[in-house]
Design goal:
Number of domains: 3
Shape: globular
Strand order of the largest sheet: 7-6-8-9-13-12-14
Largest sheet: 7 strands, mixed
Helix content: 25-40%
Strand content: 15-25%
Number of helices: 13
Distance between the termini: 38 Å
Order of helices and strands: EHEEEHEHHEHEHEHHEEEHEHEHEHH
Structural class: alpha/beta
Number of strands: 14
CATH architecture of the largest domain: 3-Layer(aba) Sandwich
CATH class of the largest domain: Alpha Beta
């Protein structure tokens, strides 16, 4: 498309400065030769001199000069410094520090476009994540982070949506939204830091607190059956379900990357210790404290006798059996399935509708609706 007046001098140039331009007027055509390459302009009565001609045609002249070449600078490497915002304010020793550090490392490794990283969270200690990540993000209402993340994912499928939260935000007040996000298979990565306690409000029983846990809400010890996160996620329909431990950084990074690569509702439960209100609870899974971190051995499909004993991540029943193992259980990918995402299904639906309407714009469709109401 031709650019209007992109190469013309300003109308207040001195006669000397205008001298380098040669004005030719003939048969309602104006040509200015010099640094400007103007092909033609249609006008009424030509002005009497060059200066007035320039002023007269300033709003009418259309140049066919090619647009200037703009050199796009190379994208800067994504570094921890670039993605780090405020200093974390968790209690010293909190497992969430390791989760944040692992997330930084994954972003650095993958070199995602900085402007396409979205970090969201609900309410709780772990949900302070967006404060510490320099990028798009939001700290949302308690338990309602999944609907927010769902809307962003569906409206902007080009973004990388990362959601962070705790056991209360995910399995209690937000448990219903977790189920619907899972069954709809909306594309996002949901990382749940499970510490078995409400830490931000100073030690109340959470949905994952074990029976017998004494807290301000259960001074005699918890008597309610705790939620089994893996069972809940399998039954809910999540298409990627994994489990890790905050002390096992390498494993945690691997789970984050695999969840990110999966198209669909990806959820990771991470045992992240609250050193203030439920210390040492996850020691049985920490080798440095005498525990055992047992990793799920996935099938390699190599037709060996050993492979018969390995876990098939596409087997929902096998995943459910793993979820029933006694605490601390096993770690790794429990379940993964390839099911169409709501993002893809909605896009197909929208594209088909666009085709039926002849590619009409949103405004045109809205106008037709108004026209039918007259």
């Amino acid at each position: 498309m031709a650019n209007k007046m992109s190469m013309l001098p300003a109308p207040n140039l001195s006669p000397k400065e205008l001298g380098k331009y040669e004005l030719r007027i003939s048969d309602c055509r104006l040509q200015i030769l010099g640094s400007a390459r103007v092909s033609r302009v249609i006008f009424g009565v030509p002005p009497k001199n060059s200066l007035s001609a320039i002023k007269f045609f300033m709003s009418e002249i259309t140049t066919t000069a090619p647009p200037p070449t703009i050199e796009i600078p190379s994208r800067e490497k994504l570094t921890k410094k670039a993605i780090t915002a405020d200093h974390p304010t968790w209690c010293p020793g909190c497992g969430d520090f390791a989760v944040l550090a692992s997330f930084y490392k994954v972003l650095e490794k993958r070199q995602l476009d900085h402007e396409k990283i979205v970090t969201l969270a609900g309410i709780g200690c772990s949900s302070r994540f967006p404060y510490f990540v320099n990028g798009h993000g939001a700290h949302y209402i308690h338990g309602r982070a999944v609907p927010l993340a769902s809307g962003i994912s569906l409206a902007r499928p080009d973004l990388h949506v990362f959601l962070f939260g705790g056991d209360g935000d995910g399995f209690s007040i937000g448990g219903n939204h977790l189920d619907h996000g899972a069954r709809k298979n909306i594309n996002m990565t949901y990382f749940i830091m499970d510490n078995f306690v409400y830490g931000l409000t100073k030690k109340q029983t959470s949905p994952t607190s074990p029976i017998g846990f004494k807290s301000k809400t259960d001074p005699q010890g918890a008597i309610d059956q705790p939620v089994n996160p893996m069972k809940k996620l399998i039954a809910g329909g999540a298409t990627f379900i994994a489990r890790t431990h905050a002390t096992q950084v390498k494993h945690m990074m691997e789970m984050i990357e695999r969840a990110f690569d999966h198209q669909g509702f990806s959820v990771i439960e991470c045992l992240s210790e609250c050193v203030e209100f439920f210390p040492d609870v996850f020691d049985p899974a920490d080798p440095k404290k005498g525990g055992s971190f047992e990793v799920i051995q996935e099938k390699k499909w190599d037709n060996t006798p050993e492979d018969e004993l390995r876990h098939d991540v596409t087997d929902e029943l096998a995943a459910y059996k793993l979820a029933q193992l006694p605490f601390p259980g096993v770690f790794g990918v429990f379940y993964q399935s390839d099911r169409p995402t709501k993002n893809a299904l909605e896009k197909k639906w929208i594209d088909n509708t666009r085709e039926k309407t002849g590619g009409a714009s949103d405004l045109e469709l809205l106008q037709k609706t108004f026209d039918r109401m007259k």
